[in-house]
Request: fold
Amino acid sequence: MKRKEKNGAANRLYRIFIYVVLCTLAVCILVPVAWVFLASIKQNSEFYGNPWAMPLGFYWQNFVKAWNSANMGEYMLNSVMVTVLGLLILLVVALPAAYVLSRFKFRSRRFFNTCFMAGLFINVNYIVVPIFLMLRDGDAALKSAFGSDFLLNNLFVLALVYAATALPFTIYLLSGYFSTLPHDFEEAAYIDGAGYGKTMLRIIFPMAQPSIITIILFNFLSFWNEYIISMTLMSSATGQKTLPVGLLNLMQAQQAKAEYGMLYAGLVLVMLPTLILYICVQKKLTQGMTVGGLKG
Amino acid sequence: MKNHKGYGRFVILCLTPAVVLFFIFMILPTLNVFRMSLFQRGAYSPTETFVGLDNFKALFQDASFIRSMQNTILLIVVVTLITFALALLFAGILTREKLRGQNFFRVVFYIPNILSVVVIAGIFSAIYKPENGLFNSILSLFAGHTVQVLWKDAPMVMTSLIIAMIWQAIGYYMVMYMASMSSVPQSLYESANLDGAGRIAQFFKITLPLIWTNIRTTLTFFIISTINMAFLFVKAMTSGGPNGASEVALSYMYGQKDAGLYGYSMAIGVMIFLFSFLLSAAVNKVTKREPLEF
Reply:
């Protein structure tokens, strides 16, 4: 009896200890993020005092300044365009390819499957320099032939590169799903007289909706947050930029002149869309991770 | 069905766009990395001269490159060890104990993973600010006087990077291990309880061996992705500074590209590729265990 009591006390102590540790970790994550949100509505003079002080009021001017004079509005529009375009291209290209690769029998199928699998191991950061050089050489050739170039500093090309680099992972994920579907669906459709294309569009794709949503989620996050490719391919000083690159430039400019409020407003503008999306779909994202677990 | 009219045409139609995109933007550049490492290329003209292994020879005499590799290895070892130890520990606690607010913790721990590295760099520059950053103000509170640790100066800069990288990665791996740990059958723990095994023994004797395959795969991927994330963090937080003290291999490669030394930059790329390939092969070999099933 006595032993049991002692056990109970130790148990309770252990549970309290666990809660303390977990809460500490949660605080470590939440506080910096929340701090940025609070800092984004502080006036510039408030940044020289105690960093833990609450903002004196809502100073929305920071957001107006970030949106207009730091061009964040324009960058936001660019980011939205690149992300949406990239996702569209990716879906249009990857869905049929994954379908064919997982459900049709043809001679070179194994070869292509292996190629795309190998693509999972190609790291975008290694190949960004050759991609840049390829596009620059292409631009030079275009300029001498037609007098104008459009490969670098082009949002559409950037979206194309994003889509291409996301292909292996996307095809891998979709093929895995498609190959679990029974073949009866197609047989029935063919008997009813539907062609291959119609069967694919009307029968198979609607069934793949859950994995399509997973793909959109993961790639939205990676396209929206990406900055190395964007920085390299959109390097012109006067050209269009995506939001993370714009923010990075703003951060580096901060070292000279201190406009902290505007900087934190910019940070909020970049992370707000991802946070809102996350809060809406967090269940799906943390569950979908087991399938996408390979993506570091 | 196979002889159906248009079968082959349909396959080609569906496959061609993906193959073309994949070839132009992934296969071709990858081959180019290896090819260009043997050439010297003018900064502005596309003329290339074959120099054989000269780029690589220069590499081994380049003190900055060696330092950047040292930094990369330091980050890989420290970040991997701490992240994995903490992620496994927390995942073990969260799945084994019936705690209130489990879902809340899961949601919160995953947040850093959805933020852009640029945003994380911004957050941490507020934390590390020397005059009135969050860290220094907490330290001052404990010390009783104003502490001014220069987090981004040479002695501390790698520590600062390590803290930021662990902050970013830990939640993702925790959520992942929670998923695999929850598939370990409860009955195993119950019988272990009857045998008098404590929590710690259960964790090391049951949980870890049973999810070992998962740990192994993620470990390999984590090492490769750390090489990558180190680049993203360094580029956004320190740009390699002060004076190259925080330069990592990929950021050094990128810096050489900015300097117009394309061949040299690609030779660095090849070295990092070989390094990461050998390292993951070694990790795979070292962590090999007889797979257990439940």
About this structure: Strands of chain B lie at 39-41, 48-50. Chain B has a mean pLDDT of 87. Chain B has one domain: 54-286. The longest helix of chain B spans residues 63-96.
